[in-house]
Amino acid sequence: MCWCKNNSIWTSATIVLFIIVAHTGLFMFFHVAPHSLMVMHELIGLLFVVASVFHIVCNWIKFKRYFEFKSVITLTVLALVALVVPLLYPGTGKQHFSSRILFDRIEKSQLRVTGQLFGLSESQLLELFKQSNVKVDNLNQTVYEISRLNDKQPIEVIQLLFGGLKHQD
After folding, report:
1. How far apart, in Å, are the Cα atoms of 116 and each of 76, 130, 135, 157, 160?
2. C-alpha span between 12 and 61 (Å, rounded)
3. Among 163, 162, 114, 158, residue whose Cα is nearest residue 139
4. CB of 114 within 8 A of CB of 145?
5. pLDDT 10s digits, 105-152
6. Which of 6, 10, 15, 80 has the most CB atoms within 10 Å of its CB?
7. pTM more than 0.70
């Protein structure tokens, strides 16, 4: 095949595109990417897939020899499972992103404000945390500060607040 005569082009393209996709992916992961970078990430990701396919086709004999080892087969199966499982997840990326923003804001809010969000009075908040053996110095502390003070994850403190909704009725 004429496009495989110089397979170093496909190998180089795969490496360069991987580096670009990895960097833009990191920016997206840490939420410092503008929308244009996200679009660029998707387009370059598609080019990366195309270059990878050509790279595999051009080096098929080497790949075939390499995949004869059981450890490589096991790692390949695990990688494929890791790729397929997110596709089976019923939520969409936007739902995950918006719920992450919501939890971040709750974590950073003062307990007094968060309590209002959950419809709990100050006395109900204090009682809820007292019954759960969670130390609260004052209601101006954030959920994050309370979680650190009590050696807990912020989500555990938020779950306590959700539990307070049940006892409110």
Report:
1. 50, 18, 19, 15, 14
2. 19
3. 114
4. no
5. 888 888 888 888 777 888 888 888 888 898 998 888 988 899 899 998
6. 10
7. no
Cα dihedral 3, 4, 5, 6 sign: positive
How many of the other CB atoms lie within 10 Å of CB of 138? Answer: 9
The answer to whether residues 40 and 24 touch, using CB atoms and an 8 Å cutoff, is yes
CA gap 22, 16 in Å, rounded: 10
Structure tokens given for 55: 């790279």
Within 10 A of 105 (CB to CB), how many other CB atoms are there?
Answer: 13
Find out whether 139 and 111 touch, Cβ atoms under 8 Å. yes
Which of 90, 86, 166 is closest to 128 using CA atoms?
Answer: 166
The SS3 call for residue 67 is coil
